[in-house]
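#struct-pred
JK: can someone run the complex with S-adenosyl-L-homocysteine? inputs below
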Amino acid sequence: MALEAWTPQQLVREYRFRFKKRFGQNFISDKNLLQSIVQDAGVTSGDWVLEIGPGLGTLTQALAQSGAQVTAVELDRDLVQILRQHLEPAAISVVEGDALELDWAQVLQGSGWQGHPLKMVANLPYYITTPLVMKALESALPFQTVTVMVQHEVALRMQAAPGTSDYGILSLVVQYYSQPHLCRVVNAGSFYPKPDVDSAVIRLDVRQQPPVGAPKAALFTVIKGGFSQRRKKFRNALKHVLQDWNLDMAQLDAVLADLNLDPNVRAEALSLQQFGAITEALLALGAQP
Ligand code: SAH
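RT: done, structure tokens with the ligand placed:
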């Protein structure tokens, strides 16, 4: 039987595959959705794709059919065996291992990659969404886009704008590295077995240049400090950071005033540019991070 003709239900029966809940296994059972994800990710002929968690290989196959070369990392040994038997070896290499642990450059090189621009595509186990997306965004590999199926709520947080209830550290960090585009909302019925929540496909267009000049480590310290006590004013939430940096509250107040910011402003009202400007001003005052 050709793989395209399979549904996860059939594959599971054929191989007497047992789901492993701990690996977050929810396979896509809607064939149109597979094509949509390939389009959402902008994958075309000649691309090199790193896929995390190929599962039974249905998305992997759709990616390869678009003409891309796919390196797929799968944790579940039973699935790796199924994949190696049935996927087209010229276009797809399957690597067994934990995507959070593995050195991706090594994995890619082992499958013939030589520095080609990369696209990551994944229908992820939801409990590793954030660390995995962060690993991709922070890596030195030439990712152009990172397209992931995540919980709908997480997608909303990634693309949230200042002043909205979804806006927070995740929004700022993701938007520092990329421009997010929510491509589609996917209901639970598109997976087998059905997850408990709705999902969404989000594409992160990776920035080639950071959008603000402030040094990254100091900027992220200010962002995390600012949100450390969500209901507090930004200035109060930043108290510990100021202490660590040998600055005092009066200096922060002067910085906020200089930037025409309300002294009572809360972190969730501040844009990435404003966090950047505050960070640069604190560093200019001699902050010692
Ligand atoms: N992409 C497939 C399967 C999605 S289910 C589809 O859309 O149908 C998530 C997959 O990720 C499972 O196959 C699971 O075994 C795998 N997985 C879970 N944790 C992983 C990890 N740390 N590294 C690599 N793969 C992982």
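RT: quick notes.
The first helix runs from residue 8 to 15.
The pocket of S-adenosyl-L-homocysteine is lined by residues 23-28, 52-55, 58-59, 73-76, 79, 98-100, 123, 125, 128 (CB under 6 Å).
JK: thanks, will look after standup
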